[in-house]
Amino acid sequence: MSKIRQERTAEQIRMILSDLLNREVSDPRLQDLTVTRTWVDRELQVADVYLNALGDESREAEVMVALAKAGGFLRHELAQRMSLRVMPELRFYWDPTLAHAEEVDQILNNLDIPDEEESGTADT
Fold it and tell me: How many helices (H) and strands (E) does the chain have?
């Protein structure tokens, strides 16, 4: 399987799942989710889907339980919208990237870096 087809399939799955989660899933636990990235194996048998609830890390457990229940519906809907011989198995993961980025941002904001003029190393 070509790398380009793998990437195109992963991107198509990401876009369709985002649309399904925003418009067609009625479970309130799956509201306001963002599909951050997807990865599909070379044989197109497995699709890893990474999601986040826009900075609300406390919802991780309930979202993962809801996704386990909605996985069959989502896979069926994907199969209806995509032209693949076999629809990949969907595996859902919580994406901690946004939380890590927020932590790094807080650390950087809390750094106490003196101005050049204060430290006495200003060029004159």
Answer: 4, 3
